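Following up on my earlier thread - several people asked me to post the actual chain instead of describing it. Fair enough. Here it is, all 255 residues.
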Amino acid sequence: MNILEAIIEKNREELELKKQNYPIDLEGKLANGKLFHDALSKPGLNVIAELKPASPSKGIIRKEFHPTDLANELTEAGAAALSVLTEKNFFHGSLKNLKAARTATDIPLLRKDFIFDEYQLFEAVEAGANAVLLIAAALPEDKFMSLQHKAYKLGLEVLAEGHTVDELEFIVDSGCRIIGINCRNLKTFKVDLALTHKMLKEIPDDRVKVAESGIATHQDMLDLQASGANAFLIGETLMRETSPGIKLQELLGNK
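Reply from S.P.:
Thanks for posting it. Predicted structure:
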């Protein structure tokens, strides 16, 4: 069992109980996914700054974690969008953090989680998200497609994440408008930025291309931009800093 399978297995039973005890009625409410798409499509270095308390590979990343303050600080520092971890068992995230970020900023929000059930899409809309992450490696192809279509019907944008060339081919064929490349090996957790560069070049130019994982410097972003990246998802590099906003400005080349 790889880490994705372990995470989903851990969360599946809890979600079934939640679905029974807390039914969601959106009453016709739709998300505004276009805001997320547009924010990542602008010219320049568009950063999705991630609010990430912990990870399975690194443990606790940020002890003092205040989502409202972080959302404010990163918005003011120039983030194009925010990614908020909501997975609790391995990343110490929560939907409360997503809702708190929504009260603090008007920029688009990505619900960063391991989505495997439509109920999680309803949760995302209810919490104020503009987009959700769908991970190709975590889902059978038919399930990925059904979740993608349901997300679009709810107004959510989808960030479709691929780790391998085969996954990328499937994602492109699925019609997803925003494609993320995460070249973190799911067994060793090592990041191969060279593979990110290679895969970015294979994504059609009519899609929004997002580089994920292993981005630590302004030059990293410039190099990835030269390979076609429109946006950059950055979490740990920001969350380990006392002042994430100052670090973000540095990454953007404004410091």
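Residues 35-251 form a domain with the TIM Barrel fold (CATH 3.20.20.70). That should answer part of your original question.
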